[in-house]
Automatic annotation (TrEMBL):
<comment type="subunit">
    <text>Homodimer.</text>
</comment>
<dbReference type="InterPro" id="IPR023865">
    <property type="entry name" value="Aliphatic_acid_kinase_CS"/>
</dbReference>
<feature type="site" description="Transition state stabilizer">
    <location>
        <position position="182"/>
    </location>
</feature>
<dbReference type="InterPro" id="IPR004372">
    <property type="entry name" value="Ac/propionate_kinase"/>
</dbReference>
<feature type="binding site">
    <location>
        <begin position="284"/>
        <end position="286"/>
    </location>
    <ligand>
        <name>ATP</name>
    </ligand>
</feature>
<dbReference type="GO" id="GO:0005829">
    <property type="term" value="C:cytosol"/>
</dbReference>
<dbReference type="InterPro" id="IPR043129">
    <property type="entry name" value="ATPase_NBD"/>
</dbReference>
<feature type="binding site">
    <location>
        <position position="94"/>
    </location>
    <ligand>
        <name>substrate</name>
    </ligand>
</feature>
<dbReference type="GO" id="GO:0008776">
    <property type="term" value="F:acetate kinase activity"/>
</dbReference>
<dbReference type="GO" id="GO:0000287">
    <property type="term" value="F:magnesium ion binding"/>
</dbReference>
<feature type="binding site">
    <location>
        <position position="16"/>
    </location>
    <ligand>
        <name>ATP</name>
    </ligand>
</feature>
<keyword id="KW-0479">Metal-binding</keyword>
<dbReference type="GO" id="GO:0006083">
    <property type="term" value="P:acetate metabolic process"/>
</dbReference>
<comment type="pathway">
    <text>Metabolic intermediate biosynthesis; acetyl-CoA biosynthesis; acetyl-CoA from acetate: step 1/2.</text>
</comment>
<keyword id="KW-0963">Cytoplasm</keyword>
<dbReference type="Pfam" id="PF00871">
    <property type="entry name" value="Acetate_kinase"/>
</dbReference>
<dbReference type="InterPro" id="IPR000890">
    <property type="entry name" value="Aliphatic_acid_kin_short-chain"/>
</dbReference>
Amino acid sequence: MIPALIILNAGSSSLKFQVFEIVDDAEPRLVWKGLYEGLGGAAHFIVRHAGGADLDEMSWASADVFGHEEALMHLVSWLRGHQDGRKLAAIGHRVVHGGEAFPGPELVDESVLRSLETLVPLAPLHQPHNLKPIQIMRRRLPELPQVACFDTAFHQSQSDIASLFALPQEIRERGVRRYGFHGLSYDYIASVLKDYDPHLAEGRVIVAHLGNGASLCALRGGTSIATTMGFSALDGLPMGTRCGAVDAGVVFYMLREMKLTPEAAERMLYTKSGLLGVSGLSNDMRVLRERATTNPDAKRAIDLFVYRITREIGSLVAALGGIDGLIFTAGIGENDVATRAEVTNSLGWLGLVLDEAANRTGGPRISSGQGPTAWVIPTNEELVIARQTRSLLGATQASLAS
Ligand code: ADP
């Protein structure tokens, strides 16, 4: 039997999954990828072959009460029906917060789960959804190993100073510090830099993960030394619906003068801000680009996004003491030619020179000249989770298959 891994990325009403098979010591091989959406309401399931061709699809009516638990059981039984010599060996989960206790992936037992639940207040909009499938699977298939892989772990290499807030000790002692997120994405990019340019793998690199969530990470020799996200996934760059860095005084204003409850203020900063809040139109960069010529608010949202990225890159260049390479990744970074052009052109002072033609076709190298280089590298967070799950469970096919 060939061991198979399910890799899960759970949201409040969605469940993204990928299935990998493990053959000897080779890189985990993607077999299928899919998605459940509309969970708890009118749910929909779609699964595709690794190459992208549709394989299967199913829908449920609201009255079916099809939630996360039903989706997980459906996935396990769907896999059994498509086994073809494979045996489900483990599940690897994306978990946004590992706190200070988990500097790397962790096999989940009851005490690990309890510990991860204590981190819910640090990531209230993500952590509960990430933990839900772990809780369900521990109840429904207790024998199946489950591994938690964290978005924070990659940044544990940062110095004490880089992760400190200038706050009194009694707050810092509660774990209030800069953690950083998108670590699974940065881990992937760091792991493939040598394939693009060996010089980059050793050098000073800034990775721009620009998706619905967005952050930057400064890598030196492939390890994280600074990042724009901090204590929560709100900090740093403006995002699809999140505000990015705002003066903490704004939050007091919202509570005291606008009389918002903490929950309403949190909702505003997480779900009504960013590109959506500034444009009043959409959190989707494709929509904003389409409308930017006729709608000044759409243009303003994009301009602010690009301005904040270039300013924060300046800060990370200072932290690195220079720059050898700039990498664009995630939905906007991989696809939005104009954002890459605007950011790179505004960094001419660093010696970056955009290769317009290469940028239009997606690179991978999109710079010319002798200075720092710029690149487009598609991220692959699920592969990192599969790698981590496999290596934690003992690497070999025999141990996974047992
Ligand atoms: P998530 O953080 O949800 O994983 P993604 O990495 O999928 O987000 O990025 C979503 C963003 O990528 C959206 O703003 C979307 O508009 C943008 N995007 C996706 N495809 C394109 C495209 N072809 N051109 C411009 N933007 C794109």
